[in-house]
Predict the structure.
Amino acid sequence: MEKELYSIIICRSNNHMLRAAALLKEVGVALEMVPVPGEYGSVCNTGLKISSRIKPAVEQVLCHHKVSLHGIYPLQPRKLDGLLAGLSPKIDPDLREVLAKEETGENLSEEDIIVLLEVSGENNAEALFNAADRMRREVVGEVVDIRAAIEFSNFCKKYCSYCGLSKKNFYLERYRMAPEEIVEKVRDIATWGIKTVILQSGEDPFYSIDMLLDIVKGIKQETGLRITLSIGERPREDLRLLKAAGANNFLLKIETTDPELYLRLHPDGDYRQRVLNTQWLRELGYLLGSGNIVGLPGQTIPSLARDIKWFQEQGIHMVGIGPFLPAARTPLAQWPPGDGFLTLKVIAATRLVLKNVFIPATTALATLDPQLQIKALQAGANTVMLASTPERYRERYNIYDNKYPVDLEWALTMIERLRRKTVLRKV
Ligand code: SAM
């Protein structure tokens, strides 16, 4: 059978990309949203993957409706040539079969991902992690992107049962940083040469949209840094205004794509609303971050595999994958931490399936064991987030206990040990 070839439609703006997607869906075209490879420059960051067979017809529809196109390009399958030749003969046959698909650039199915997540034994694990590491090298290169996170409020209106910031945690001493204090801290971070700052908080309505806009505009004017927001669910109009004010990325983890498990863990949450928020963020043109927690009570391997497929279907650009860690005085305080090895396998499988995305070696992994953070960078991860909340607040941002203080020194030590690179801005 002849192999299916794919093309990527790249539009000149996010609005045109969304119009193209709607028009093509209306006429029954099967498409997938995918991150646009960096080499196309600063265009819309989400592209539409279609079968190359229908490219002429698609071009006609889009041209007729005056969709502004950057172009429709052949989407080269990301192949890992020669992957099998380098494998030890002791590799499990199922794993070998899945890695053979990576060698030829075939899309992995949910069943294939399950095989990857069920890998056991040193040889098999090494084969999986090496394949993911090679994919990382080929799609995003040797640079480890260092970002700085400021956790500016630990107030939260939500009751997530795993999280130490839950509104139910009456014992947690709460804090909020004033807008000027946040901008001041970012000014300090900018002097380290970091290019992206992540502003994270519990879901805290105290920060009105006007306050948030002042913060975003203040940071942009004073430092020009890229801004990632991670402030939970907000009305669509707020998200639009924040994007227009200069916010670049938004991190809103889905946590789990199993709706029943989601409901159990978020008694006041609404899975559909979380998905809708994710869709809004994409529509508004944010570089879109999502992710999950590994080791939640009742979570299964097939459910983790579905998470990865969901990230792929949603065209997620950045995937934060961390183990569950218990937080004192929460309903899950006695639940054991997520498995580090399984978390590494989820990272590796995500890299192999999604390819051209940002994957942090998370602080949660470092908290479980700092060596796991290094291993994550060797199993597909390419980003590190520094804990840059001012010292006097840091301990109170207790989403889980004993958070590892990932600082610039540690990040640079890891990068040097792995003989990788980082690019800090000249200041
Ligand atoms: N409120 C925002 C939201 O809902 O996206 C962002 C802040 S929330 C505290 C940041 C992330 O912490 C969550 O997306 C969740 O994955 C992670 N988190 C919270 N509690 C955790 C725990 N006990 N173990 C591991 N990760 C946890």
In short: The first strand starts at residue 6 and ends at 11.
